[in-house]
Specification:
Number of domains: 1
Shape: elongated
Number of helices: 4
Largest sheet: 2 strands, antiparallel
Strand order of the largest sheet: 1-2
Radius of gyration: 20 Å
Strand content: 15-25%
Structural class: alpha+beta
Number of strands: 4
């Protein structure tokens, strides 16, 4: 566990964590509070996780066996666009 310090109303995320999570100056985050906890959430990763949850089971329903089936579906959809 690492600690961070609040200075001038800002929390500095330790360099090791910033590198590990590919956080750069100017990145924006979602902040959630729950009792005595503060969560800092990457909005892009949060959105990806939400989409993944929504699509759980779709591959089985569509009969897709591997990534190539998904790629073929996308190509077919693009080819049939109006």
């Amino acid at each position: 566990m690492q600690t961070a310090k609040l200075m001038n109303g800002q929390i500095k995320i330790p360099l090791e964590i910033r590198k590990k999570m590919n956080i750069k100056d100017g990145d924006e985050f979602i902040i959630k509070t729950n009792k005595n906890k503060i969560e800092i959430i990457n909005p892009v990763m949060s959105a990806i996780e939400e989409v993944q949850k929504e699509f759980e089971g779709v591959a089985d329903e569509m009969g897709w066996k591997d990534e190539q089936d998904v790629v073929k579906f996308i190509k077919d959809m693009r080819a049939n666009r109006i």
